[in-house]
Structure formats: C-alpha cells, structure tokens
Amino acid sequence: MDITLAGCVPPPLLSLLLLLFFIFFLIVDLRGSTIVFFVATGSQI
Which domain of life is it from (predicted)? Predict the structure, then answer.
C-alpha cells in the first residue's frame, strides 16, 4: 500500500497490473517453462 512506489500510476491500476502479471507468471509456470528459469535465477542470487 505504498503510494510512492506507484508514482504517477493510480494505486488501483498498479494493483491490477501486478495482479495480471502474477496471473500471467502463474500460467506460464503451470506450463513448466518458468520453473527452470526460476531455479537458474534463484541459484545466482
């Protein structure tokens, strides 16, 4: 709920974009293509 992160974007719109991105990432993850990417990225951190 930090408005400073939104900048010029309204908080409801920002939350909607984050929700859509999360759903998109979840759908791709269900396909099994992001699992390898997540493991490869997580190992570097």
Answer: Eukaryota
pTM value > 0.70: no
Q: Tokens standing for 39?
A: 């493991």
Residue appearing with tokens 């709920």: 1
Residue type for position 36: V
Contact 35, 25 (CB under 8 A): no
Q: Which two structure tokens, joined as six digits, stand for 18?
A: 């984050």
**Encoded amino acid at 8, one letter:** C
pLDDT over threshold 80, residue 27: no
Nearest to 14 by CA among 25, 2, 26, 28: 2
C-alpha–C-alpha distance, residues 29 and 35, integer Å: 6
